[in-house]
Amino acid sequence: MSGIPRVPLFLGLAGLLPFIWGAATYLLPALQAWGAGILGPRFIGPYVQIAYGQIILAFMSGVLWGFATKANGGQAATGYVLSVIPALWAFFMTGGGPTSAAVNLIFGFLGLLMLDAAFAAWGLAPVWWMRLRLVLTFVVVSCLSAGVFL
After folding, report:
1. Which residues contact 150 (CB under 8 A, 6 or more apart)?
2. Gyration radius of the chain's alpha carbons
């Protein structure tokens, strides 16, 4: 994780907490019961992960839009079009219950990683961007997988 500025690294890692919390409350029944009692059922297990995952995919659409502003002509148009995909994916693909929503979020975050790679390859993202995104995506997909595969 060397070369990643401290503030984006810290904020990115902090942004993993709802995914980690969701996985922990899914895997540990005592923690799930405590969390449901203190925070309510919406803030445990896959439910917190799905709600937060939708927000993060929409947020990342905005980040990619910002990258697209650095491009010109056809590349800018392509960047703008691609930048809205994560938000639309989150909106249309997270219904149908917690398991299918989590599976679709996994695909959404993996697709986002491919978009990140495209923007990085075009020189529109910071040079450290993919190092950060690989780590964050690995943790997010792992945490979402806890509710799907375990």
Report:
1. 26, 27
2. 16
Output the pTM of the full model: 0.96
Q: What is the distance between the alpha carbons of residues 150 and 66, in angstroms, rounded to a whole number?
A: 37
Sequence-distant (≥ 6) Cβ neighbours of residue 83 within 8 angstroms:
61, 62, 64, 65, 67, 68, 115
In this structure, are residues 129 and 113 in contact, taking their beta carbons and an 8 Å threshold?
A: no
Domain locations in the chain? 6-149
d(CA 48, CA 93): 16
What are 98-114's pLDDT values in tens digits?
999 999 999 999 999 99
DSSP track, 75-88: HHHHHHHHHTHHHH
Long-range contacts of 133-136 (CB under 8 A, 24+ apart): 135/1, 135/12, 136/12, 136/13, 136/15, 136/16
**CB atoms near residue 72 (< 10 Å):** 9
C-alpha 80/C-alpha 72 separation (Å) is 11
